[in-house]
Amino acid sequence: MAAYDTNNIFAKILRGELPCHKVYEDDHVFAFLDIMPRSPGHTLIIPKAAARNILDISAEDYAHVARGTHKIAGVAMKAFKADGITVQQFNEPAGGQVVFHLHMHVMPRKDGVALLPPASRKEDPKVLEEHARLLIAALASA
Ligand code: 5GP
Question: Which residues are annotated as catalytic?
Answer without folding.
Answer: 103
